[in-house]
Write a structure and sequence with these properties.
By secondary structure, the protein is of the alpha+beta class. The chain has a domain of 143 residues: Heat Shock Protein 90 (2-Layer Sandwich). Helices cover 43% and strands 18% of the residues. The protein contains six helices and seven strands, in the order ααβαββαββααββ. A five-stranded mixed beta sheet has the order 2-4-5-7-6, covered by helices on one side. Strands 1-3 form a two-stranded antiparallel sheet. A hairpin with a 2-residue loop joins β6 and β7. α1 packs antiparallel against α2, α2 packs antiparallel against α3 and α4 packs antiparallel against α6. The relative contact order is 0.15.
Length: 245
């Protein structure tokens, strides 16, 4: 099947829809909490409203900071991103959630697209365990040729429907909606990063593995191997030091 060539305007619109979908719930909860504060004089209700506002504000901040790296142009140094930043925003996504995150990765700068791929795979790994569980993230190798392994373990674990076709860029029906844009975008990033993504399942564990694509030998045996394709667009400023709690 021929890969879908999604128009740039449609891609940006769908990614914006995805970010809005993730943020609108906690923002709505903040609004509800403020309305309670305005209308209620009962002490216990006001305390509940303040707790709701605080929790929802942390959640909205965490989701925005995650999206800024996973979908945006944010980077800690040009075309590279510190894996420590990736871990920080990933952990923020799972605060107060039914899913736990284990993380094992070097403390180093990695090419931007490889880190963006890792973050998008974290979200796909979460969707593989709809009832919650554990996501174990392991990054091995250097930034030019890393191996990314994510294992999702939990009750009713399954490879999300159509996710493999979306990552391959060949969605069923030849279209993508806001629900499927994340794996479709992950596929775009994986190809830009020259990485292959594979899924497998055994029992209650889904494994997602991303590895460098094989590079054909150069005609000159002494010539250096070509580098993986990376996004060299300039990044914006560093993420703010907002605490993810």
């Amino acid at each position: 099947m021929t890969p879908l060539d999604l128009d740039a305007l449609d891609l940006s619109a769908l990614l914006c829809s995805r970010v809005c979908h993730d943020v609108i719930s906690p923002v709505g909860a903040i609004v509800n909490g403020l309305e309670v504060l305005e209308d209620e004089s009962d002490t216990s209700m006001r305390e509940f409203a303040l707790e709701l506002i605080a929790k929802s504000a942390r959640q909205a901040s965490a989701r925005l900071q995650f999206a800024r790296i996973a979908f945006g142009a944010a980077g800690s140094a040009g075309a590279s991103i510190d894996l420590a930043d990736a871990e920080k925003v990933s952990r923020g996504m799972f605060v107060d959630d039914k899913t736990q995150l284990a993380w094992s990765a070097p403390q180093a700068l990695y090419p931007k697209n490889k880190v963006k791929l890792l973050l998008n795979l974290v979200m796909i790994a979460q969707s593989a365990i709809p009832r919650g569980g554990l996501i174990d993230v392991v990054v091995r190798g250097d930034g030019e040729a890393p191996t990314l392994v994510l294992k999702s373990k939990g009750s009713h674990a399954r490879i999300p429907a159509h996710v493999e076709a979306m990552i391959a860029g060949t969605p069923e029906g030849g279209t993508v909606d806001a629900h499927g844009i994340l794996p479709f975008y992950a596929g775009l990033v994986s190809r830009a990063a020259n990485m292959d993504v594979r899924f497998s399942i055994e029992g209650d564990t889904v494994t997602i593995e991303a590895t460098p694509k094989s590079v054909a030998p150069a005609p000159d045996a002494h010539a250096p191997a070509p580098k993986a394709i990376e996004d060299d667009r300039p990044s914006d400023s560093e993420p703010p030091e907002t605490a993810l709690a």
